[in-house]
Design a protein that fits this description.
single chain, 302 residues, alpha/beta, D-Maltodextrin-Binding Protein, domain 2, 3 domains, 23% strand, Arc Repressor Mutant, subunit A
């Protein structure tokens, strides 16, 4: 049952109790950090709501009327209950802020999350943070099931019950061993890539989903030509470096190998391999506390 519109708000009731306790509207205003005219206005509003005067102004200060004393007696229980509610909410917020579980797809977990974690630690040193790493499908499931307070994925497709916001961008690149024939060419065609068996991440991987989407946009009837499936980016890089087959991986993941020359990356004509990296959470549930801070950190330009 909704409260009557005659019920004053807590700020007015608190102020009334302070005036009675301190004996002066001016001293009560100072205690509440407001001006005396604001305090007078708040008391007049209270009196309009209840329909009776609650204070008598004298040369010595202010004192309650009979009705004001009665309202103050009732208000004291209300204000004390509100204070208990406030303390309880503070406890809940402290518990929320004491820990954060994050789910992130492998590329993000390995190559971006460590920097984000350092920045979050600087802001919230007492927060315990746990990271669950998996492919994009597993991350989405973890967020939907409530195991993670926020997730980060690479894949272009997400369940409808999730809301997503772009936090960064990445580019997929073709990588081959230095001795492979493509290593001597600065550029290959998308048809050559389509006809070549590749090493893939497992189904559900954001890297695989992004590559699949790019290929089907370039060649609508394209089908994957799978030489091998591996669930680890590190294992794929090792297999490629040994000459087993080419692969398509995140530029973040292969930057050290490309710099060292243990992998080579030819450009692909006619193929858009740019992709967005996204933060995800259940629809209607914006991140709060440490999750909100982590989201803000992830959105910063690198």
């Amino acid at each position: 049952m909704p409260l009557s519109p005659r019920v004053p708000d807590l700020a007015a009731l608190e102020l009334l109790l302070s005036v009675i306790e301190l004996g002066s509207l001016g001293r009560a205003a100072k205690a509440h950090g407001i001006s005396q005219p604001s305090a007078s206005s708040r008391i007049r509003y209270l009196e309009q709501l209840v329909g009776v005067p609650v204070l008598e102004r004298t040369t010595l200060g202010s004192r309650p009327t009979a009705a004001g004393a009665l309202i103050a007696e009732w208000a004291r229980d209300v204000v004390e209950a509100a204070a208990r509610l406030d303390a309880g909410i503070d406890t809940l917020r402290a518990q929320r802020d004491s820990r954060l579980r994050v789910a992130a797809s492998q590329t993000i977990a390995e190559y971006l999350f460590p920097k984000w974690l350092m920045a979050l630690r600087a802001r919230m040193p007492d927060t315990s943070i746990a990271l669950e790493s998996g492919n994009s499908a597993e991350v989405a499931a973890s967020v939907l099931e409530g195991r993670a307070g926020i997730g980060f994925v690479e894949g272009p497709r997400l369940p409808r019950d999730l809301e997503s916001h772009i936090v960064a961008h990445d580019r997929l690149v073709v990588v081959v061993a230095p001795g492979q024939r493509w290593a001597r060419r600065p550029e290959i065609t998308v048809r050559e890539l389509a006809a070549t068996p590749l090493i893939y991440r497992e189904p559900g991987s954001g890297t695989r989903n992004s590559f699949t989407r790019a290929m089907t946009e370039a060649i609508p009837d394209w089908q994957p030509n799978v030489a091998l499936e591996l669930s680890s980016t590190t294992a794929i890089k090792t297999a490629v470096a040994q000459g087993l087959a080419p692969a398509v991986l995140s530029s973040l993941a292969v930057a050290p190998e490309l710099a060292a020359g243990t992998l080579v990356s030819p450009t692909v004509q006619g193929l858009d391999l740019d992709r967005a990296l996204r933060a995800i959470w259940p629809k209607g549930q914006r991140p709060t506390g440490p999750a909100q801070d982590l989201y803000a950190i992830a959105r910063r330009p690198v």
